[in-house]
């Protein structure tokens, strides 16, 4: 570790990753915005899924001030967050074959919808099966993952494949295997994960691209406003009523 304070080192590392995403994923971000705006224009619905800490970036898209009202969370009980007890159960569920298919069979997803699947490693059965099954249903899939894991780890899906292998479009978060940006000669393990910061920023860049693409087509983006600004609740009520057949978190 250098003489610079750990906080500054971590922020520099996160900024470096964000710059890489900005520069290296620009075309993929633009393509994702086009895919999502096409879905909205054609009457499709939008969903996001992530397991464990990857679910944080998915949740950040749903019912979000400044975000698209049509983005719904596809939840897998026990795998959405870190409030599962005991905590290792959530990780174990990510490795269960058949779970993703059961979830999709009981979800509102249908052909013509779009699904964002967020998985840092992309190696577990749940995100791989989720992508495979969703695409078989006619759902467009955008995978958000660290492509490096596919060359440095072994898949935990029976096919030996990764999330990136079953997507219409892949967004690479550039996160190194292990998701820890700092080391210290007196600390036995690397520390300071940046995946949540980078993945959330990457996805918000996609949402911004989608909103602008819709506006460029003459379509008012179905955006939510903060409930803490005057008129925000009335605005949101109008948007939710207009798109009530495509919003599933209000029922």
Automatic annotation (TrEMBL):
All copies of domain SIS, residue ranges: 36-221
Highest taxon above the source species: Bacteria
Annotated signal peptide: none
Segments crossing the lipid bilayer: none
InterPro entries from the UniProt entry: RpiR-like_SIS, SIS_dom, SIS_dom_sf, SIS_GmhA/DiaA_subfam, UPF0309
Family of this protein: Belongs to the UPF0309 family.
HAMAP family xrefs: UPF0309
Protein name, UniProt field: UPF0309 protein GCM10010383_61570
Originating organism: Streptomyces lomondensis
